[in-house]
Specification:
Layout lengths: L9 E3 L2 E3 L16 H18 L4 E5 L5 H10 L3 E5 L3 H8 L10 H9 L2 E4 L10 E4 L5 E2 L2 E2 L2 H13 L5 E4 L7 H11 L10 E4 L18 E5 L2 H12 L5 E3 L3 H32 L3 H8 L23 H13 L4 H27 L8 E5 L14 H11 L3 E5 L14 E2 L4 H6 L2 E4 L8 H7 L3 E3 L11 E3 L1
Parallel strand pairs: 3-4, 3-6, 4-5, 6-9, 9-10, 11-12, 13-14, 13-16, 14-15, 16-17, 17-18
Antiparallel strand pairs: 1-2, 7-8, 10-11
The structure holds nicotinamide-adenine-dinucleotide.
């Protein structure tokens, strides 16, 4: 059943979405201008199309974020186009082969049969009603690189038409939607808020999370004005259980950076504590377990070999960069957290070196098995994974490394000449050291404890078992 998006005003926690009449953004403009009356009728028509599932939705960028959103759009009945510049990816999608871990081939094939069209031709998006931009926002030498958002916006501008809504979903610093995307779209001659609607909605997807997926994770939505907010909210209300409207695109842009910076800083806190606790001869894991019994004012974070993926190593730097640009001040929490987390792979390698040394072994020539190469459990994504840094550092020291990761395809080309192999009792038994880097549920802790001669467990998964080795 389509979710109702019209009728009585909805209360959404933070923001009351106006349906008609006086509104925080001045729905009819200062004087009820012709332009705003035109936008009101365009909005009504867009909302009706969304309600009736007669809208065409274009998801720009078919990666870890864009592909799952496209799949959900098809599921709820929208005609869905997946625009992707990488022609090889488009060919794979068309052939029903998913390259995103959370989307199985079966789901992709059902979507293809149900109205999903992957394309690398921007012309195919002509006449779209909703465009969602989910393209990468990396760092280039520590500075936000918005070139993908820029080129995607130019592409959307080529097919922009009156009455449509454009939503930026890529993670970015406050001001991007208004200062970068809007002028590009308006270069067409169409005006945001009058001829088309514009907003921002951050993605909160957590790859590998079995409890919270796209549908049951509340979605923060925003618009450049009240009508745009209504359009963005109406669209995402067709996809998720709950939307959380906020007052401006800047607020929504900050929400995402705040969430990831919070996580980044807290992981850095326990990582730094883990290093001190080892020096002090204290078991940090026991201390964390005990602290976690406090029913208020504490949230559990655990140490590990560092942070990875497309969010934590990057997003906080978007925030610190924009703070520095606007206020001239450094965002010290982020800089400190970056420093601690970036040095964790070195710390892991130092611990490994010490363990081998205690047994009269050099790292050079040692046979080391890395358990896990993805940046976290349950995902195949190994972008920015701390495992890469650990493998590089061990390779530099002359170790003979193999890696096991059930989520990575056999074809994955790992760095540092690290071979990807299957985990077996024989492999573990032949290793001088096994370093457990990712707590994938597929790794059998009993097998690891029973077969390995020496283990460095960086994720604390073997703590309750007997094994020869150490926990981080
Ligand atoms: N991966 C996550 O867990 C996650 C979670 C929340 C938010 N995000 C954010 O979402 C955004 C997208 O991340 P992702 O992980 O999906 O990236 P991704 O690299 O997996 O996918 C992005 C896709 O966009 C394509 N692309 C690049 N430029 C394009 C253009 N101009 N037009 C069309 N397609 C284009 C790329 O070829 C790629 O396939 C980023 O801003 C990221 O920070 C990611």
């Amino acid at each position: 059943m389509p979710k109702a998006t019209r009728g009585a005003p909805k209360r959404h926690g933070l923001w009351r979405i106006p349906c008609r009449g006086p509104a925080p953004f001045g729905r009819l403009g200062a004087s009820g201008t012709v332009a705003s009356l035109v936008s009101a009728s365009l909005l009504d028509s867009l909302l009706a199309k969304l309600d009736e599932r007669a809208a065409t939705v274009a998801i720009v960028g078919q990666g870890y974020v864009g592909l799952p959103v496209a799949m959900r759009c098809v599921e709820v009945g929208h005609r869905t186009l997946g625009y992707e510049v990488d022609a090889r990816r488009v060919a794979m999608l068309r052939a029903g082969h998913s390259y995103v871990g959370d989307i199985p081939d079966d789901q992709l094939r059902a979507a293809l049969a149900g109205g999903y069209t992957p394309t690398d031709q921007i012309g195919d998006l002509a006449g779209f009603d909703v465009a969602v931009i989910s393209v990468p926002t990396p760092l280039a030498e520590g500075i936000p690189d918005l070139s993908f958002v820029e080129s995607a916006s130019h592409a959307v501008a080529r097919v922009l038409r009156a009455g449509s809504v454009v939503i930026l979903e890529s993670t970015t610093y406050p001001g991007t939607t208004d200062e970068l995307v809007r002028p590009i779209l308006e270069s067409t001659g169409l005006r945001a808020g009058e001829d088309f609607f514009l907003g921002y909605s951050p993605e909160r997807i957590d790859p590998g999370n079995a409890m919270f997926g796209f549908v049951n994770t509340p979605k923060v939505v925003s618009g450049i004005d009240a009508d745009s907010l209504r359009a963005v909210d109406a669209f995402f209300s067709t996809l998720v259980d709950k939307t959380v409207p906020v007052k401006s695109c800047r607020e929504a842009e900050l929400v995402k950076l705040l969430e990831n910076t919070f996580r980044h800083v807290n992981i850095a806190l326990v990582n730094e504590l883990a290093m001190f606790a080892d020096d002090l001869g204290v078991d940090i894991w026991n201390a964390i377990d005990a602290a976690s019994t406090k029913p208020f004012g504490y949230m559990r974070f655990t140490p590990g070999p560092g942070v990875g993926g497309h969010c934590l190593p990057i997003d906080p730097s978007y925030l610190s960069w924009s703070v520095k640009r606007r206020s001239g001040h450094p965002f010290r929490f982020v800089e400190l957290a970056n420093d601690v987390n970036e040095h964790m792979p070195e710390y892991v390698v130092r611990r490994a070196q010490r363990m081998l040394n205690d047994r009269g072994l050099a790292v050079r020539g040692a046979r080391i098995v890395l358990l896990g190469f993805a940046y976290k459990a349950g995902t195949s994504d190994w972008r920015e994974s701390p495992s890469v840094a650990v493998a590089d550092l061990l390779a530099e020291l002359g170790a003979d490394i193999v890696a096991c990761d059930p989520y990575l395809p056999a074809s994955a080309e790992l760095p540092a000449q690290t071979e990807l192999v299957e985990v077996t009792a024989e492999l573990l038994a032949a290793a001088d050291l096994v370093v457990l880097l990712v707590d994938h549920p597929e790794f059998d802790p009993d097998l690891v404890c029973r077969s390995s001669r020496l283990v460095l467990d960086t994720k604390g998964v073997l703590r309750s078992r007997e094994f020869v080795g150490e926990t981080l």
